[in-house]
Amino acid sequence: MRAVRIGSNHMIDVVELDAPTLTPDELIVRPVACGICGTDLHICQHGFPGTNYPVTPGHEFAGHVLAVGRNVNGIKEGDFVAVNPNVSCGHCEWCRENKPHLCNALTPIGVGRAGAAAEQVAVPGGNAFVVRESIGHGVAALIEPLACALHAVESAQGIKDRRVLVMGAGTMGLLTTIIAKHFGAADVTVVDPNPAKHAIALEVGANRAASPDELRDERYEVIFEAAGAMPALRQALGLIRKTGVLVQVGVHGVDAKVDINPFTVYEHELRIIGSNSLANQFAGAVDLMSDISQQAAKLIGDTFSVWDFAAAVKSMESGHAVKTQLSFA
């Protein structure tokens, strides 16, 4: 079968590989849509923790089931599924605490094991969720980032009737905006330095869209830093209302550092919370997507053939589209 491969030298190639072998606990899926995200850019550019090079990327995907292992229940050949890419061990302390994304032996699809940028991909049966194909292939591939955004919103420990700021109008920022409004946030402001993204932020439910320099002395009860950019994080730290919460969603470099005034954290009773990956929210995201699919579809921008993966990466780097996806036609 054909597959995209990224080597340890970060070169992208299309190669011929053996098709995955069906094991008793797995499925073989033929992908039909796959998103590209910041993790993929890290893998292509300078590496991402846990990457097993050479790797076939692709962790935000949906497709049709080609074969079902004998130990897998509730899924049959031909089913349309979205896939949770986090493959956990199931028995370490974090798995026992129902935090599989923190698993000591986490091996994500498309990072630590072969991903969906291929004609076929093997996935654990428990990681596949049957979804209605009528929501659209591209929307189904957004369920994984939606699960990440759902985890971020739940990490805020209460969103209803609160004043919210979202830093970054990328996929994570806008999905977080959609969820915050869906769950009753009183007001959501989205900030992004690219004015071209302001219109879509308003279209999916933001009350206000602004550039960073338009923020003055406002204070927000909940802030989501979804930009993964140091200027955004520094600005966010100065905009938290007393007793407010900052949820760190954006992925920064492993060596990045920012100054925090501990006296302000103490005096204002601030909370700074990390939100890593999708936790245990994939099933919830499958259900939620049925309610917000029309809004989510507005995030899908440029679509490339999977075999033009390098071009798709360049398009995402340009920042013109919110969500760049791969097709398999």
UniProtKB/TrEMBL annotation:
UniProt entry keywords in alphabetical sequence: Metal-binding, Oxidoreductase, Zinc
A Pfam family it matches: ADH_N
Alcohol dehydrogenase-like N-terminal domain sequence ranges: 24-129
Molecular function as annotated in GO: oxidoreductase activity; zinc ion binding
Cofactors, names only: Zn(2+)
Cross-referenced PROSITE patterns: ADH_ZINC
Family: Belongs to the zinc-containing alcohol dehydrogenase family.
Protein name: Alcohol dehydrogenase
